[in-house]
Amino acid sequence: MSHSLFPLRMQRLQRSTLAVPASNVTMIQKAAESAADVVFLDLEDAVAPPEKAQARKNAIAALNDIDWEAKGKTVSVRINGLDTQYMYRDVVDVMEQAGDRVHMLLIPKLGVVSDLYMVDAMVNQIEQACGLTRRVGLEALIETALGMANVEEIARYAATSDSRLEALHFGVADYAASMRARTVNIGGLNPAYPGDQWHASLSRMIIACRAYGLRALDGPFGDFADPDGYIAAAERAAALGFEGKWAIHPSQIEMANKVFSPPEAEVTRARRIIEELRKAEAEGKGAAALDGKMIDAASEKMAMNVLSLADAISARGGAAKAAE
């Protein structure tokens, strides 16, 4: 094992991330009552330019008026891109007026480390100026060829500095456009490609995340009338190690939560692995057998991942019941 280890920077349950246009107050209210682990109030792509200012006001009001934590939710705000005239006001207004209520800001189309540094520095200064005690986290979307080309550098910077970056999301739609991919399908399989055309990119991003302690999230699946396609895409991401996926429609929340939750049988087996290894340890053995299969220290690490997730899901369920 290398002496250079980067533990997870921030643990958050994020099986489902519900995208909600901040221009729609009714949708925001419904999102607060949903089963999503994380809700992000969108000021970017889901909001038309004439509605940007009002959407920002709606997001701030929702942050202040809704007790998201009591509902067992993490709440994020997707700001506009650094190449727009809206970004600076998004950061300033949200942080100055609701910086003690928002958990994270989601940065779209992150391309280079300096993009991250800019938002990081703005949030730092506003927190200091306003005397805010909550440390707001940052998430970033890798959704351009430039961002993917620099994903390792971005993740490494976050791990080796005082950066607020917690997670990276794969934004498949803008990424497809950036790559000039022959598809108009958001997140689905292209029958012209032998397999999953995003597999290499997903793999590259999650390696960077796991190497440097960031959460890894899969992005949207556009056809919300195709539940089987959504589940298949979520299962592919889960198999790679992603911990959650976006829901762009409420019907996708339950599917994401189910796919990214360990089945009860898996949790039970994880507990048995730990029990058998403890018995073996007491006998001076480094390995053991369970159901005819060898288990060892690597098995323990995998089992602990399952149990940690199961405990987080249980805790969220308890918080939600307490709020009822």
Automatic annotation (TrEMBL):
<dbReference type="InterPro" id="IPR005000">
    <property type="entry name" value="Aldolase/citrate-lyase_domain"/>
</dbReference>
<feature type="binding site">
    <location>
        <position position="143"/>
    </location>
    <ligand>
        <name>Mg(2+)</name>
    </ligand>
</feature>
<dbReference type="InterPro" id="IPR040442">
    <property type="entry name" value="Pyrv_kinase-like_dom_sf"/>
</dbReference>
<dbReference type="InterPro" id="IPR015813">
    <property type="entry name" value="Pyrv/PenolPyrv_kinase-like_dom"/>
</dbReference>
<dbReference type="InterPro" id="IPR011206">
    <property type="entry name" value="Citrate_lyase_beta/mcl1/mcl2"/>
</dbReference>
<feature type="domain" description="HpcH/HpaI aldolase/citrate lyase">
    <location>
        <begin position="15"/>
        <end position="250"/>
    </location>
</feature>
<dbReference type="Pfam" id="PF03328">
    <property type="entry name" value="HpcH_HpaI"/>
</dbReference>
<feature type="binding site">
    <location>
        <position position="143"/>
    </location>
    <ligand>
        <name>substrate</name>
    </ligand>
</feature>
<dbReference type="GO" id="GO:0016829">
    <property type="term" value="F:lyase activity"/>
</dbReference>
<keyword id="KW-0460">Magnesium</keyword>
<keyword id="KW-0456">Lyase</keyword>
<dbReference type="GO" id="GO:0006107">
    <property type="term" value="P:oxaloacetate metabolic process"/>
</dbReference>
<dbReference type="GO" id="GO:0000287">
    <property type="term" value="F:magnesium ion binding"/>
</dbReference>
<feature type="binding site">
    <location>
        <position position="78"/>
    </location>
    <ligand>
        <name>substrate</name>
    </ligand>
</feature>
<feature type="binding site">
    <location>
        <position position="174"/>
    </location>
    <ligand>
        <name>Mg(2+)</name>
    </ligand>
</feature>
<keyword id="KW-0479">Metal-binding</keyword>
<protein>
    <submittedName>
        <fullName>CoA ester lyase</fullName>
    </submittedName>
</protein>
<comment type="similarity">
    <text>Belongs to the HpcH/HpaI aldolase family.</text>
</comment>
